[in-house]
Design brief:
Helix content is 39%, strand content 17%. The chain is an alpha/beta fold. The protein folds into two domains: 7-164 and 305-377, Response regulator (Rossmann fold), CATH 3.40.50; 167-299 and 391-404, Response regulator (Rossmann fold). It has a seven-stranded mixed sheet, with helices on both faces. A five-stranded parallel sheet has the order 2-1-3-4-5, sandwiched between helices. A two-stranded antiparallel ribbon has the order 11-12.
């Protein structure tokens, strides 16, 4: 790797940065650094998500602030060239998975830390409140990893999302089921299992609509309380429904409890096709071991892409040095979100919200200049990137393997995932 990671750029609240902020003009035209606020759960049940996000952002900051040979936005220069080489600095805020804490922390970052933009926030319910605060203050908010479709349908000017939403992901999931049918697999019924926040509800609504359009019977549609201490009753309902495919929309702790309860009650569907979230996290697979063998999850990222895009492997190596793990569905999106946001700030030649917003609107990054399997990054009138092509990954032999779509697959899916 031809760049080194500089943690000094990520220090928060130092005396030097405060002195610099005091000396800057109101327009901050002569700034030597650009401050971006990152809102994540850094404590509570999803704390590991926030820790991993920090490592993803550190990896991106090193690429932005230092010069390298990677074929990625801003990699060829040190800092933001259109702002005199200004460095990116991240200020983190802990929303603890609470939408109201997210709102308060967003307002603190905007009014006290004077951030130029916001990035976050994992839970879609938090993004819903944070984005409203950002809109009110005229500060761009780039959603890194929130997948609720409704987030980009509220008429907000300052909200953008580069990754796919759950309707896009769900369409890829049903495309896969259709392809399995064409191969002769008998797939008639599905069971939906989703938590009761905006993420789970929006995911289930998308899947109900697609099931009706594609000719699949919904044998069960079970909503459960997020972070529930027991899922025994819900799993008993799933077992009784005996659908061909289980489609869970759950975060990590709920996903772990689901798989363990399924094992205890002897429930083994032909396949589990998950809406990522907890099913993209290594913590889930560490906790359940072989119980997750064969699970299929939709995703934004495929490490297999390194064979076509060398930057993928190099960035993964850098991230792994910091975190001890490979990039996944969440951390890859977080990494790219910061690069996309920094690229817009550089093109804006300003840290003012309206200028950054206009630059985001004008974004046009070829897919080859990302680490994702996307066609390109370009935002539509709602702030959504419609070119964020999803992939499907199957857990085989303790690692993820890309099994769909055909142009990205490196292996055939194992179906059924388990013999009953």
């Amino acid at each position: 790797m031809s760049f080194t990671l500089n943690r000094r750029d990520l220090l928060v609240g130092t005396a030097a940065s405060l002195a610099l902020a005091a000396a800057m003009t109101p327009a901050r035209a002569q700034t030597k650094e650009v401050v971006i606020g990152a809102l994540y759960p850094l404590s509570g049940a999803s704390a590991q998500i926030g820790v991993d996000a920090q490592k993803a952002f550190e990896t991106a900051v090193a690429i932005i602030n230092e010069q390298s040979d990677l074929d990625l936005p801003l990699a060829a220069t040190a800092g933001l060239p259109n702002l005199g080489g200004a460095k990116i600095r991240i200020v983190y805020a802990d929303h603890q998975g609470d939408p109201q804490k997210g709102r308060a922390e967003a307002e603190r970052l905007i009014t006290q830390e004077k951030v130029a933009a916001l990035v976050g926030s994992y839970q879609s319910a938090v993004a819903a409140t944070v984005s409203q605060s950002a809109e009110r203050y005229g500060v761009p908010f780039l959603s890194a990893d929130n997948s609720s479709p409704t987030l980009t349908r509220r008429g907000l000017k300052y909200f953008f999302r580069a990754a796919a939403h759950d309707e896009m992901f769900s369409a890829a999931m049903f495309d896969f089921l259709d392809a399995q049918r064409k191969k002769g697999e008998k797939i008639e019924t599905i069971a939906l299992f989703h938590e009761d926040t905006i993420f789970g509800t929006d995911s289930a609504n998308a899947q109900l609509k697609l099931a009706a359009e594609r000719g699949y019977k919904v044998a069960a549609d079970i909503k459960y309380r997020a972070n529930s201490p027991s899922l025994t009753a819900e799993v008993q309902q799933l077992k009784a429904a005996d659908a061909d495919v289980l489609m869970p929309s759950s975060y990590t702790t709920d996903g772990i409890l689901l798989l363990k309860t399924m094992n205890e009650l002897g429930y083994k569907p032909k396949a589990i096709l998950a809406q990522a979230a907890g099913f993209s996290e290594q913590a889930l697979y560490d906790a359940v071991g072989p119980l997750a063998e064969g699970v299929i999850t939709r995703g934004s990222f495929s490490l297999d892409l390194a064979a076509k895009r060398p930057s993928v492997g190099k960035v993964n190596d850098a991230f792994k040095k910091l975190s001890g793990k490979d990039l996944n569905d969440n951390t890859s999106r977080e990494f790219m979100a910061l690069l996309i946001l920094a690229d817009a700030i550089n093109r804006a030649k300003s840290t003012e919200g309206e200028a950054i917003r206009a630059a985001l609107v004008a974004t046009d990054i070829p897919g080859e200049k990302t680490i994702m399997p996307w066609s390109k990054v370009q935002f539509d009138a709602t702030g959504q990137n419609p070119y964020a092509d999803p992939v499907l990954l199957q857990r085989i032999g303790g690692k993820f393997v890309t099994v769909a779509p055909a142009q990205a697959a490196v292996a055939q899916a194992i179906w059924p995932m388990k013999k009953n």
